[in-house]
TrEMBL record:
This is Phosphoglycolate phosphatase. It comes from Sphingomonas astaxanthinifaciens DSM 22298. PANTHER family: BLL8046 PROTEIN, PHOSPHOGLYCOLATE PHOSPHATASE. Pfam families: Hydrolase (PF00702).
Length: 225
């Protein structure tokens, strides 16, 4: 029985992926590492601990930590105030809550960034809890963020669904025993989202099609495939 929805935030509920790419590009450049924006975007969805090593596998721990901190600093300074929710994001959270589901946020963002996301979404009254990079030992694509969110919601993995925009959401959720509904709003190729059980253009499309979507608990109770 479906009891909880675990929402990724960046690229799923909030239009922030491009800003993260720019902040990472500036952080890497300042440290003497230049990557094409597409190379950086391909890693979006991972937390900083995994993000840096995906591009610089041999980097020293201290240098990796410095890059992560530079990214956070640049993102907070230049982009955090520019974030906007995707159309339908808040209404989808409310629709899930109205359907009797627990609504959790599961993100590789820092706790500080998550608090800003809550304000951007005006969602503090709509969510039951959250897990962030600060709550776990390993961020996406490790399963920790989703495992922690499910545990905080008091549900088993089979009683939850994840909603995300990147292949790292799908990998992390699968490792936690949780299926994923994916959205294309993070601008990842559809071929990289094939592990999802359903695919929508964005959360507004998911909201419009909620009754026939995997997020509808009544649909699951009726045994609809």
């Amino acid at each position: 029985m479906l009891r909880a929805i675990l929402f990724d935030i960046d690229g799923t509920l909030v239009d922030s992926n491009d800003f993260h790419v720019l902040a990472w590009a500036e952080a890497f450049h300042a440290a003497g590492h230049d990557f094409r924006l597409g190379e950086i975007h391909a890693q979006v969805g991972q937390g900083g601990d995994n993000f840096v090593r995906a591009l610089l596998p041999d980097i020293a721990d201290a240098d990796a930590e410095a890059l992560v901190e530079a990214h956070h600093r640049l993102f907070r300074k230049h982009y955090l105030h520019r974030l906007k929710p995707f159309p339908g994001a808040r209404d989808l959270l409310a629709r899930c809550r109205d359907a009797g589901l627990k609504v959790m946020l599961a993100t590789s963002a820092t706790r500080e960034e998550l608090q800003r996301h809550l304000d951007v979404l005006d969602a503090r009254a709509l969510v039951d809890g959250w897990s962030s990079a600060d709550d776990v030992g390993c961020s996406k694509p490790c399963p920790d963020v989703f495992e922690t969110a499910a545990a905080k919601a008091g549900v088993a993995p089979g009683e939850a669904l994840a909603v995300g925009d990147t292949p790292f959401d799908i990998i992390a959720a699968r490792a936690a025993g949780i299926a994923t509904v994916a959205v294309r709003s993070g601008l990842f190729p559809e071929t990289e989202l094939q592990g999802a059980i359903a695919l929508y253009d964005n959360v507004e499309a998911l909201l419009t099609g909620f009754d026939d979507s995997p997020l509808n608990p009544e649909r699951a109770r009726a045994g609809t495939p």
